[in-house]
Amino acid sequence: MRVFTFAAAGCLISVFLKSLFTAAQTPMSDSDFQLNKAPSAYTLRKVTEAAAYAAYEWIGRGERGHGDNAAINAMYDRLDGLGVSATVIVGDGDPEDDKGLLPGTKIGPVDAEPDFDLALDPIEGTTYLARGMTNALAAVAMAPAGTLFEPGPSRYMEKLVVPPSARGLVSPEMPVKDRLEALAKALDKPVSDLTVFVLEKPRHRELVKQIYNAGARVALYPAGDIAGAIMASIPGSNIDALMGTGGTREVMVAACAVRALGGDLYGRIDPQLTTEKAAVSEVGMDTREWRGIETLVTSDDVMFSATGITTGLLFDGVAEKAGEIVTQSLLIAGPDGQRQILTSYHNKSSFEAS
Length: 354
Known about the structure:
Elements: E1 3-4, H1 9-21, H2 41-56, H3 64-80, E2 86-90, E3 106-107, E4 116-124, H4 126-130, E5 137-144, E6 156-162, H5 176-187, E7 195-199, H6 205-214, E8 217-221, H7 225-232, E9 241-247, H8 248-261, E10 264-269, H9 274-282, E11 291-292, H10 293-296, E12 303-308, E13 319-321, E14 324-333, E15 338-347
Parallel strand pairs: 1-8, 2-4, 7-8, 7-9
Antiparallel strand pairs: 2-3, 4-5, 5-12, 6-9, 6-10, 10-11, 12-14, 13-14, 14-15
């Protein structure tokens, strides 16, 4: 049995980025993929670029909260400047902060009826950013109002993600061995050639053991649920599936990207904390139910943008080169799933206006 840890990221990145760059022959623009009054995916990337740059100043400084707050504030300001009316369905922030992005937060005119739902993660990998580690990113997804599942007090969800060619063919109700056999059949490859992305957490020891016993490979990473889900949805990425329990916020953001890409994602409320279990029970949420992608995101008209903060699986992190700020963002737009990696060069003195 072979295990891929974070040290193997280099070979994965080269293959994955190649597939991303060749996916879009022409660059997206502000006029592409309009959803009524929605900004384009190209415009939405300004939100994640701003959050990534704000967090960049806190890489490796050991201050988990400062980086998170900086990214949240920057994301709020850019969202508020888009000129749309939206509701945050899953987000992050301090309840006492006027610029918090907690669920229920309204973006745009207070008295306007929301046109859109937002799923966002100002920093995926907050702890790892504070430690100067890899795979931290900022992400935002937008969909028509009323189309995103509201997870309430849930903080953790178990998920299964497979590529488009396996959509509807792999059930999360299956034992791990049966999942892998069904996936291998759908992809027309032996189980021994499958690679499953799993977060390197103590709670996943048994899952990892079952994957090994089935004969497949495991790619273990300390963070990167959103990146792993996207990779599992793109053929040729060297990741064939994602399994395990991670943050609810990351699951919902990833679900928007996976839906646009045509992949398949299932999520199950899986509380990990005593307080979370009590809160989930109090509102009557079923922790046994697996919700499919069409329940989590009921519209194909989704837009997604993610920008690297530290270099990871999807793209390079924020960098300063010759007095400029360099960012890399992944843009995905439904319903056809067009995607591209965009490298942007910003004048440092005028970054706030970029």
